[in-house]
Amino acid sequence: MTGTAAQGQTLRQLGPTVYLPSAVFSTGIGAVAPVIVLTATGLGANPAVAAVVAGLLGLGQISGSLPAGVMISRVGERRTMLAASAFAVPALLACMFAPNVLLLGAAVALLGICGSAWALSRHAYLTEAVRPELRARAMSTLGGVGRIGTFTGPFLGAGAMHLAGLDGAYLVAIAGVSLATVVLIVLPPVPHDRAVPPGAERPRLWTIIRTHQRTLRTLGFAVLLVGALRASRQTILPLWGVSLGLSPATIGLIYGVSGGIDMLLFYPAGKLMDRHGRRAAAVPAMALLGVAHTLLPFAGGVFGLAAVGVLMGVGNGLSAGLVMTLGADASPSAGRAEFLGAWRLCSDIGQGGGPLLIGAITAVATLSTAAVAVGGSGLLAAFLLHRWIKPQRS
């Protein structure tokens, strides 16, 4: 089938071949995300070193973005995902049996690279596969199934840990990655794959980046702030709960409610962007996240923190699929995978830098100062997105 034929697909048709493998893979990776720190401390790492080891997952994602884009262009999305799975399983086994923190850190970074390759492969495919009027819904659904996976994965991992200790979470992850790979192999190939035909001129990565440097400097910087806001939300909400002296169970409940609201909004967010333009979701989403962070210092108890958590969930939910949709809109037909790799790098840098910004400001000032600073970044992101996103055509 040609690329034009692929563009006639509906979201329901994309479900088994695109969304199902991604959901299973995300569930597997989600199962181990909370236990990496515990594995590191079990190997003798102090809390600071354990936090660095956990952060290597994000560093792997950052370092994997550009190579994944080049690989997708050369061998196609499906082969890229199969290669990522082939490395992800050994990486998980290495996490299980790592004799020291150094090997654990290397395995965690490799796992991040594999996750980046999977995410970018699906992003590149959907950019080609759906009609422009369905693009935001397709991207927000992809983001939604990923969030569902990362939300349910820890629960599956926790259940397995009751039976097999920390190894149980890694076994769930191995099962998830393996099952996603089997689904990918068994189901029919998607109608379009982004590999450059043999003999055709391959676009050079740095040429693509230079050609589109203005987009990456402007809208790409706004996307970097989006990534930072999203990641900081996951860090600062539990930290504020700890500063209030709340129990871990209460903090977990508030965090879970915020995440639940976030998940419920992924499809409405895509529909809003498709019908009323990208600004309609992007600007209020970042404004809400910014205001929520700014209000955090006024949350003096359970109900105040819960209210802020709900506001963060709404803001984050409205931004579901936003980064992928904007990247798809801005991507060129030639060198698309390479461009999307650079685009994802912008977001990944933000996601990696958000928690570091909170830690740095808190170290020299207070957590309240960090919350207000991040809140200001959210309002700046809303302004820049309004400025640089092209308005919807009537």
Automatic annotation (TrEMBL):
Residue ranges constituting the Major facilitator superfamily (MFS) profile domain according to the UniProt record: 14-394
Transmembrane residue ranges: 18-42, 48-68, 169-187, 244-267, 288-314, 357-385
SUPFAM superfamilies: MFS general substrate transporter
PROSITE patterns: MFS (PS50850)
InterPro entries the UniProt entry points to: MFS, MFS_dom, MFS_trans_sf, MFS_Transporters
Keyword Chloroplast attached: no
Compartment annotation: Cell membrane
Bilayer topology: Multi-pass membrane protein
Keywords: Cell membrane, Membrane, Transmembrane, Transmembrane helix, Transport
CDD domains assigned: MFS_MdtG_SLC18_like (cd17325)
Official protein name in the record: MFS transporter
